[in-house]
Amino acid sequence: MTNPANQSLQPPTLPSRQALPRRIYLDNAATTPVSEAALTAMLPYFQESFGNPSAIYSYGLEANQALSASRRLVASCLGAMSSEIFFTSGGTESDNWAIHSVVGRSDLKGRHIITSAIEHNAVLKPLAKLAERGFEITLLPPDRAGRIAVAALERARRPDTILVSIMLANNVVGTVQDIPALARAAHEVNAVFHVDAVQAAGYLPIDVRALGVDLLSISGHKFHGPKGVGALYARIPRLPEPLLNGGGQERGGRSGTENVPGVVGLATALAEAVAGLPKTAALTALRDQLIEGVLRIPGAFLTGDPVNRLPGLASFVFTGLKSSVHLINRLNERGVCASSGSACSVASQEASQVLMAMGFSEELARCSLRLSLSRRNTAEEVETVVALLPELIADIRAKIH
Ligand SMILES: Cc1ncc(COP(=O)(O)O)c(C=O)c1O
Fold first, then answer.
1. Assuming Cys at both sites, which of 35, 64, 93, 395 could form a disulfide with 224, CB separation 3.0 to 4.6 Å?
2. Active-site residue, from 77, 337, 344, 367
């Protein structure tokens, strides 16, 4: 008889893929494969140089040097100083920490916070918790293209506004916000400005000084770095109030033994992505090829800003589908990985809150498709998907009616 307890000692293994056709991965806004350069840079820090960066013997010093070099690299990619970069476990922690660091400040007495209705849950959920504690949260509505108007922020801001948090680029529709103008409007009432740049980092040039922001979140796995590692930029002279307390790592800001291989992978991947930014036109051209092809399908509409959008993100709604789940499943059967824009809403077949906030009907907001490209995708892959979609959509519509 097998002991069920023994089964849990088996390490995870990959299921056989023989039955699947060649896959076309168009869900890079969900996550990306780790780049060769990032993987190569990470490997020595798992076994050869595995030391705890706080140790004072050679293993520890090597690990510590890797952390410092990574911090310098990330800082230079973002136009920041090394002392302004703090490593975290990803975008969710960076967003939570950014919010917590402002709310925890004893010098800020106000209890009013402004954000947008289309933020990621990593911002909206911690703010909802704060609302339970008596903070007042104002959600700015986007326009039909997902833009947050500076005038709306100017109307909402108050002398007791302590924090404004608005994302640089939206994860569902890719709309890019005018962060410098929004940050200026926040600073006019002395509010701290946080930007969630998780979708933008590695795809758009980021200079924290030019953006004029106080706090900025990034996450490694969105730009070909590893999962479970991110960074928070926090403008000096103020260090962010800690969220995690313990051994005092990250200059007391974030306790816990550092994820050295992860940090090295994040820094390497970010530097690689930033070095490739001058070639973004190629990615934009692929995206536009995709948009043009999909919009030839009757009842297909582009969502998000047609111009100011992420270079790799194409997002649509389709009439007459009832839900995008069937379409995403059918694409998967044909080897194409795509999503509706938010992992949670696909699973529960819920309408996209982002699209509803942008004024789409619940019916259309259930039928969204996000195709997100990376530098690894090819024109051939785009052509294949553009050729496949009309057939799948017509078939699903025919079965519904
Ligand atoms: C805009 C945005 N913010 C935050 C996150 C959370 O990042 P992580 O998965 O690293 O926790 C995501 C991830 O999808 C995102 O798209």
1. 35
2. 344
